[in-house]
Amino acid sequence: MAIDEKTRTELEAAVFRRLVEHLRGRTDVQNIELMNLAGFCRNCLSNWLKEAADDKGVALSKDESREAVYGMPYEAWKAKHQTEATPDQVAAMKKSQAGH
After folding, report:
1. Surface-to-core class of residue 33, CB atoms within 10 Å of its CB (0-12 exposed, 13-18 middle, 19+ buried)
2. pLDDT tens track of the chain, all 100 residues?
3. Residue 24 contacts residue 80 (beta carbons within 8 Å)
4. Residues 6+ apart with CB under 8 A from 47
5. Which of 47, 52, 74, 85 lies in disulfide reach of 89, CB 3.0 to 4.6 Å?
6. CA triplet 43, 47, 52: central angle to 5 degrees?
7. What is the gyration radius of the CA atoms in the chain, in angstroms?
């Protein structure tokens, strides 16, 4: 990419915001499904955000980073949108994590 660092960072930030908004709109897609298909989920994004804040010395709690990704407190999102994982989903998750 032949663009300057500031523009690249702005583009990456815009993509992150779009991904987060997309995931907020797709509450039908469960985190376990994301993990099984893509190897990451909303919690991963919030953890990565917190790690980036920690690296920069920015005060951001785990709850704050989750709210930034979920658009609401995590417990509220779980109560409103999270469903019970099926036995097949749990088995797929265990299988995918066995190699890690």
Report:
1. middle
2. 689 999 999 999 999 999 999 999 999 999 999 999 999 999 999 999 999 999 999 999 999 999 999 999 999 999 999 999 999 898 988 888 775 5
3. no
4. 62, 65
5. 85
6. 150
7. 16
